[in-house]
Amino acid sequence: MASRYLSSLNAAERGDLERKLLATQQGVCFICEDPIDYEIQRAHLDIDHIQPLADQGKDDPRNFALAHANCNRSKQAADLRVARVMARFGKIQGAARDLGKDAPNLGDVLAFRNGAQHSIRLVVENRRVRYGFPDLEGPEANQVHEAPLYVDPLSRMQYFFALVPLSYLHHDERINPRGIGASLRGLVEEFFKGRPQLHVSLAWTPTDGNEAGVVRIFDGQHKAVAQILLDVAWLPVRIFVDPDIDVLLQANTNAGGKLRQVAFDKSVQRHLGSALYRDRVERFQRETGRSPDDFRFSERDLVKFFSGEAAEMKRYILDNVRDGITHHPENRLRQYIDLGGRKNVKPISYSSVDKTFYSFFISPDLLDTPLDYGLDVGTNPRELEKDQIVRLMSLISEIVFEGRFELERGTYRIENKIQEGEDIPEPHLRAYRMAKEEIMYNWLSYISQIVTTFYAFQGVPFTQTKLFQVRHPDSFWANVENYVRNLASLPLWVNRQLSLTVFGGKPNYEFWNKIFTTGSSPQGQQVLVEPLNLTKMVQP
Ligand SMILES: [Zn+2]
């Protein structure tokens, strides 16, 4: 937000810049793409960075855009190019609401983009499909494409793969009646950053009758919409030819697509990591007449339903998150956490993890979104929370523990051995000291501040209690990595003289809080050259 360049301009120079930007933007707001009336709105315009400074954008006129102040302040993404795409979707949402719908679907988006107008011309012959798009304008209209026709060995359904222009794509509202939810932004950002589409959308078409050649997408509408909003004009599609519609319908009845179910099951399973939680979820499904793969209910619904044991139910929910993190296969810190094995081997107790990582970073607020919300597009808040806390723990493991803390050396009487002059390697000593509960408690608590400062700097509102339930960008992770690296390089961790004083005895949380915030211990001993400065610590 804060621009040195802009604050160096006087009023006349700023006016010049505004008019120049307006001209390059053809007179419209960069975000909402509606006209700006400069005479009337000049006092209500923002100049902002297109690519945020926090994302390596430059503080330079080529990275500036002019926008209505209220568009800029209510934008849905820090990057203005993504914000513009979300504003386009906002207009489609508004139009859908005017038609009395809760949310738009792929059909509504296609209607905005001149989609869903034509039927493909296709001929099936000798296990091959010949097809074309003769209604297109330009040379594409004259091309005839050919593709092999495959047969699915189990369902016996026939299909081919094709790249299809939007004007030939339709939405299947019967098989896929769901609207597009708030989860779209994450997907738009992924595609915008150049990450590829991993699964193609699924469609079907009949080959005769008056619907012949109408290609209807019944699965993957979020992926399709995100790309359409990003100006993609042709989409890759797997097209079933003359399928048994009842079978397709059946496959989609409960969880939104049999073919998506493969990825879905795995994440739901992780979602249901702890046994008591899983038991309550199953009871809820049974007693409310739902099928076992129906997860369209929220944490709050569960607590309401089991109101006789509301406090326990809430604990099962959070236990499930904790379990999911502790036993996550990608949690690299796990090997350094003492889960009740041999004594004096591992540097971090489970209780420390519970009092730090879990109590600081797992949101205690019950969610109102369905348990399966956004699972297929990576925006489920609990999954994001788990995955990102695992990422944080693994990052710390990599910087502080791996290849440094020696499990065979362990934790037994380390400070005494130092005092007796034994040669404990520095990396081992550093990891041991940083892992002590009262110390870790303090330095981990600053990570909450790093999160909130990061978003405050970008002018993005942020809910304190939901620290890891939104996907943090790479630039945020770079800050955290810098912080942990800078912290680990402080000399106190390997200062052997400090063994008798600050690292001896049983100091409490406040003792270390005083050291980190003032540089000195409560007894006035200088431990750090200066208090921790988070702004500096997140720099490389
Ligand atoms: Zn605007």
In terms of topology, how is this protein built?
Layout lengths: L3 H4 L3 H14 L13 H4 L3 E5 L14 E5 H5 L6 H19 L7 H7 L8 E5 L2 E5 L11 E5 L1 E2 L6 E8 L3 E3 L12 H9 L8 E5 L9 E5 L1 H9 L4 E8 L3 H8 L8 H11 L3 H13 L11 H7 L4 H17 L10 E2 L9 E2 H12 L19 H21 L12 H6 L6 H9 L2 H21 L16 H15 L20 H10 L15 H4 L3
Parallel strand pairs: 8-10, 9-11, 12-13
Antiparallel strand pairs: 1-2, 3-4, 4-5, 6-7, 7-11, 9-10
Helix pairs in contact: 7-8, 11-13, 12-13, 13-15, 14-18, 15-19, 18-19, 18-20
What does this protein structure show overall?
Strands 6-7-11-9-10-8 form a 6-stranded mixed sheet. A 3-stranded antiparallel sheet has the order 3-4-5, with no helix packed on it. It contains 21 helices and 13 strands. The radius of gyration is 28 Å and the shape is globular. Helix 13 crosses helix 15 (381-401). It has helices at 4-7, 11-24, 38-41, 69-73, 80-98, 106-112, 184-192, 221-229, 245-252, 261-271, 275-287, 299-305, 310-326, 350-361, 381-401, 414-419, 426-434, 437-457, 474-488, 509-518, 534-537; strands spanning 45-49, 64-68, 121-125, 128-132, 144-148, 150-151, 158-165, 169-171, 201-205, 215-219, 234-241, 337-338, 348-349. The chain folds into 3 domains: 4-75, His-Me finger endonuclease fold (3-Layer(aba) Sandwich), CATH 3.40.1800; 108-256, Conserved hypothetical protein from pyrococcus furiosus pfu- 392566-001, ParB domain, CATH 3.90.1530.10; 275-537, no CATH class. Strand 3 and strand 4 (128-132) form a beta hairpin. By secondary structure, the chain is an alpha/beta fold. Helices cover 42% and strands 11% of the residues. The model is unreliable at 254-273 (pLDDT under 50). Zinc ion (ZN) binds at residues 29, 31-32, 34, 67-68, 71.
